[in-house]
TrEMBL record:
Its main location: cytoplasm. Residues 216-238 have a biased composition (Basic and acidic residues). This is RSH4A protein. The keyword Repeat does not apply. It comes from Balaeniceps rex. The lineage of its organism: Eukaryota, Metazoa, Chordata, Craniata, Vertebrata. Residues 202-215, 338-347, 398-417, 533-552 have a biased composition (Acidic residues). It holds the Pfam family Radial_spoke. Residues 201-250, 338-361, 396-430, 490-552 are annotated as: Disordered. It comes from the Eukaryota. GO terms for cellular component: radial spoke. CDD domains: DD_CrRSP4-like. Keywords: Cell projection, Cilium, Cytoplasm, Cytoskeleton.
Length: 552
């Protein structure tokens, strides 16, 4: 026979209410079996209902609490109503309003943010058909995610698809010629999803012209104010002759470290924000510091040496550094244009442009993994100066040279040595390792089915940077914190030594105030000296008068 309750005869809780187990009986059962029976009973009461999600243990506790708080008369007669009131209170807020307010779940909130990505504008369906026939700058994010997934790299399919839709929305708003999902940089509060784009010709130039006009206007106002200030400050003490080192200008948009434009957002569905161009000073300073990102572009970067900008500038500098060191492609996929001829000698960096090779024949996957010479860098390296193409900061235009010829003949700076970096399309085999660690690690996505394996490369210098190659398809991506690997702990730069005190001497030593007796003695001595000088003058006058009389 089936026993009473949820317990079977062979279970320890069976027979809890049978004779001999009642607390009112003289016979006391074994304490261990009784404790086990109590634990099983409590576990049964804590089972949640598949319909409402509640459990009987909490429900009975809430009912007893309500009865003890309210202490109604004849509680046993209204116990059913009390049970209904307790259940009803679970689905209502304490601060009730005219309308029932349902609690917003996190999944529902996330779905609302991504809802705009799935909505189509009026007439958008016809435009999509035209884009399918022609070329579109929208990258196939899902295809790239599939190849990286073979090696266990990438995001979830849902997030990848949301990023796919977010890039589509970005392309519909901005005049973009090429677009690529660059990667994802992690932050302490929020993350950054990064898109790498290139504008159509002429679109970016308009923005730069506006910036130049603003700068020229500010310079003109400064010159007018300077003339007025010169008249007012003629009597001021001399100023320091120290001249700070010249500011190295940033590279023009579309060249060097500013070849691409980057847009970021914290989550798919949030608005895209364009990052400002990077300057050489920001890249040089970013190499000396190591900061975690917060996820807020306007957050200050507190560091030493001080970083010239906020987190948006620091993020842009790190993107430039990562791109310069990890953007790679299979050898032979890109080639230099035949029209360029020999390498340019002016910038010292050689050729800075390339094109796709129409006759490219991919290497077998085994060769792509077996030798790093099968991969090349197609991103320009950044020099120590912070630019991809070296610039002499002391070289001036003809007009400036004519003005400063007379002033700075004696103060000519020493000639700087021109910096040169590795040329474009340099094989990865020439990359320097990190102590005993190679710069790159190559592996196959699978060793079981080699016919369909994908070649995967991982950067050891920038953890989180990956590249894949399968046939004529390849791509680069980054998932990480935006930090460069260092075998030793990061040691911030020490502040400069304290400036030495001015040498003390009698000419600057503070004199002791004289006493009253010393002042009186000094005054008496001064009067005596004046009296003696007057007597000498009188004697000289008398002598001169006597000499004049003798002459007469």
């Amino acid at each position: 026979e089936r026993g009473h309750g949820p317990y079977q005869p062979h279970e320890p809780g069976y027979g809890l209410y049978q004779p001999g187990y009642s607390p009112y009986d003289d016979q006391i059962p074994d304490p261990k079996s009784r404790m086990l029976a109590i634990q099983n009973a409590k576990a049964y009461l804590l089972k949640s209902s598949t319909t409402s999600g509640l459990n009987l243990y909490d429900h009975l506790a809430n009912m007893l609490t309500k009865v003890l708080d309210e202490q109604p008369t004849n509680a046993v007669d209204i116990i059913e109503n009390i049970s209904k009131d307790v259940k009803w209170a679970q689905f209502q807020k304490k601060m009730d309003t005219l309308r029932d307010e349902h609690e917003i779940l996190p999944t529902f909130d996330a779905a609302e943010k991504c809802k705009a990505l799935f909505l189509k504008a009026n007439g958008e369906g016809d435009e999509e058909l035209e884009e399918e026939i022609g070329e579109t700058p929208l990258p196939n994010v899902m295809e790239t995610a599939f190849y990286f997934e073979q090696a266990g790299i990438g995001l979830s399919k849902d997030e990848s698809y949301h990023i796919f839709l977010a890039l589509k929305k970005l392309i519909s708003v901005q005049p973009i010629q090429t677009c690529r999902f660059w990667g994802k940089i992690l932050g302490l509060e929020m993350n950054y999803i990064i898109a790498e784009v290139q504008y159509h010709e002429g679109e970016e130039e308009e923005e730069t012209e506006e910036e130049e006009v603003i700068e020229e206007g500010e310079k003109g106002m400064g010159e007018v104010e300077g003339e007025d200030e010169k008249k007012e400050k003629e009597d001021e003490p001399p100023k320091s002759t120290y001249k700070p080192p010249p500011v190295i200008p940033k590279e023009e948009n579309g060249t060097g470290a500013n070849k691409y434009v980057y847009f970021v957002c914290n989550e798919p569905g949030k608005p895209w924000v364009k990052l400002p161009p990077v300057t050489p000073a920001q890249i040089v300073c970013a190499r000396k510091i190591k900061k975690f990102f917060t996820g807020r572009l306007d957050a200050p970067v507190v560091s030493f040496p001080p970083f010239p900008g906020n987190e948006a500038n620091y993020l842009r500098a790190q993107i430039a550094r990562i791109s310069a060191g990890t953007q790679i492609s299979p050898i032979g996929f890109y080639q230099f244009a035949e029209e360029e001829g020999d390498e340019e000698e002016e910038g010292g960096g050689g050729r800075d442009t390339y094109e796709e090779n129409p006759d490219f024949q991919p290497l077998p996957v085994a060769e792509m993994v077996g030798s790093l010479s099968a991969w090349v860098h197609h991103g320009q390296s950044i020099l120590k100066q912070g630019r991809c193409v070296w610039l002499n900061p002391f070289q001036k235009s003809e007009e400036e040279e004519e003005e400063d010829e007379e002033e700075e003949k004696a103060e000519e700076p020493d000639e700087l040595q021109q910096e040169t970096g590795p040329p474009l399309l340099t094989p990865l085999s020439e990359d320097e390792g990190i102590q005993n660690i190679p710069a790159w690690t190559a592996q196959l996505s699978t060793n079981l089915i080699l016919q369909y394996a994908v070649a995967i490369l991982q950067s050891n210098r920038w953890p989180g940077a990956y590249a894949f190659a399968s046939g004529k398809k390849f791509d680069n991506i980054y998932f990480g914190w935006g930090h460069k690997y260092s075998p030793e702990n990061h040691s911030p730069a020490l502040p400069p030594p304290v400036q030495a005190e001015y040498p003390s001497g009698p000419e600057i030593a503070e004199a002791r105030d004289p006493t009253l007796e010393e002042e009186l003695a000094f005054q008496a001595a001064r009067e005596e000296a004046l009296a003696a000088a007057e007597e000498e003058e009188d004697e000289e006058d008398i002598v001169e008068d006597d000499e004049e009389e003798d002459d007469d």
